[in-house]
Write a structure and sequence with these properties.
Blueprint: H1 3-16, H2 23-33, H3 40-48, H4 50-60, H5 62-65, H6 70-96, H7 100-120, H8 136-146, H9 156-166, H10 171-196, H11 203-234, H12 237-265
Length: 266
């Protein structure tokens, strides 16, 4: 992997991490298009640069984190199901689900779900005056739905936003809770992944990681600020259409690419 590829991947990571479009899915598909395959350092890189995206959220929402301990407890309750399922299913998910075709199909299915959700329940008013007022029960169920995002292509943001809407939050609150829940979830997942990696890291790799961290930080910062305003005005349906379109495009790309390779070998 060279510097240009590192920058491209970092921008993709930051721009998609907190949108309901699946950052993991986009990273897998973009890596596939750039012909970056199964390198130990590349896997470590795509995991480590998530810390840049996390840092952007912490900077943007630091005031809410400083308001009191209650929000921390609610986030911990929401994180419990993901921690348990992630620990038990980590090896299976990494072995069988990280492939371009599976990601593409998950993007399409998730897009359809987002459109249906947007039409049927997104206009509901919140049961809570403030985000901190969410009940422990509802926080837990949002975390339970977040477990679906372990399937590459589903999207952690999409799962938690949908979970938030079904558990009494309005679209803005659901989006912000998704952002906040990303901090413990991504820190734990990133840390666990990095402990499992055996990639060698030298001066070149450190430079690539630094580029990736910076790129992910700034692209996530911009994406989050724009996303909240967009959702308030337009909801989630356009992200659903985007997921369906990009999923179909990649299915066609892989199908036609595979057919071309087959014809070339005949």
């Amino acid at each position: 992997m060279d510097v240009v590829q590192a920058v491209i991947l970092s921008i993709v990571e930051g721009a998609t991490e907190f949108l309901p479009v699946s950052s993991t899915g986009h990273m897998i598909l973009v890596s596939y298009m750039m012909k970056i395959h199964d390198q130990a350092f590349v896997k470590t890189f795509t995991i480590a640069i998530q810390l840049g995206a996390i840092a952007a959220i912490v900077m943007l929402y630091y005031r809410r984190f400083l308001q009191g301990i209650d929000i921390y407890i609610k986030l911990c309750v929401a994180f419990i199901p993901t921690a348990i399922v992630g620990f038990l299913a980590y090896k299976t998910i990494k072995t069988y689900l990280f492939n371009p075709l599976g990601v593409s199909l998950a993007l399409v299915v998730g897009g359809i779900v987002l459109i249906v959700i947007d039409r049927r329940v997104i206009a509901r008013e919140s049961r809570y005056t403030a985000l901190e007022d969410i009940s422990y029960k509802n926080a837990f169920f949002i975390g339970l739905i977040q477990c679906l995002s372990m399937i590459p292509g589903v999207s952690r943001a999409a799962a938690t936003i949908i979970g938030g809407v079904f558990n009494g939050l309005d679209k803005k609150q659901a989006t912000e809770f998704s952002f906040l829940l990303a901090v413990p979830t991504m820190c734990a997942a990133t840390g666990y992944d990095l402990l499992k990696t055996d990639a060698a890291v030298g001066s070149t790799e450190i430079m690539l990681l630094a580029c990736g961290f910076i790129g992910a930080f700034f692209s996530a910062w911009v994406a989050v600020r724009l996303f909240v305003r967009f959702v308030e005005n337009h909801g989630f349906k356009l992200f659903g259409y985007y997921r369906i379109a990009i999923g179909i495009v990649f299915i066609l790309y892989m199908t036609l690419g595979g057919s071309a390779s087959l014809l070339k070998n005949l």
